[in-house]
Design a protein that fits this description.
It is a single chain. 34% of the residues lie in helices and 0% in strands. By secondary structure, the chain is an all-alpha fold. The radius of gyration is 22 Å and the shape is flat.
């Protein structure tokens, strides 16, 4: 997020030098992912000369990894998933 800080640090007794502090607010993961998708899509479309074209699939899958077994299963999925793209129904090459 490119939001500028808008609050001042609390004053301490006798402190005449009060500087603005950067306010850190927690943003939802979805907002971060959405911003990444928006910015990268715009740049990709500029490079390819395809204004308004979609690049990312809608939404994403969010999951809390609770243990090492789950972590390893997810890692395996991430590693092996690209090889499945030729067979994926969302692949534009598979649409008739």
């Amino acid at each position: 997020s490119r939001i500028a800080p808008t609050q001042m640090a609390p004053a301490k007794m006798g402190d005449s030098r009060i500087a603005p502090t950067q306010i850190v607010s927690n943003k939802p993961l979805g907002r971060l992912v959405g911003a990444f998708k928006t910015i990268s899509t715009k740049k990709i479309n500029v490079i390819h000369g395809t204004p308004g074209a979609t690049f990312w699939q809608r939404n994403y899958y969010e999951h809390v990894i609770r243990n090492e077994k789950a972590f390893n299963a997810i890692r395996s999925y991430i590693t092996g998933n690209p090889s499945q793209w030729p067979h994926d129904p969302d692949n534009p090459c598979n649409r008739a």
